[in-house]
Amino acid sequence: MGLGGCILLIGAGAILAFATDWEMDTVNVDLVGWIMMLVGLVGVFVYVSIARRRRMVVPPTTTVVADDEHRYQ
Fold first, then answer.
1. CA nearest 34: which of 25, 45, 42, 23?
2. Alpha carbon 34 to chain centroid, angstroms
């Protein structure tokens, strides 16, 4: 799930939790909204941590050998 999907989950969960007043016998809509927001926030944190690892620059590990003997002959 990408960052857009996580933001969509947070938005839809907020709408269900705060902007609706539906009453159902079998499902607590407010709880479903809170769960969706929580899953969206966890997804954002996971996405950010993975994106941070991808952006790390690893210095090259090649060894440079300077051969000064041939330069001054």
1. 42
2. 19
The amino acid sitting at 62 is T
> Exposed, middle or buried by CB within 10 Å (0-12, 13-18, 19+), for 13?
buried
Q: Give the global pTM.
A: 0.68
- pLDDT at residue 62 above 80? no
Contacts of 18 (CB under 8 A, 6+ apart): 33
- For 31, the token pair is 């709880």
**Distance (Å, whole) CA 35 – CA 32:** 5
6: left (phi over 0), alpha (psi -120 to 50) or beta: alpha
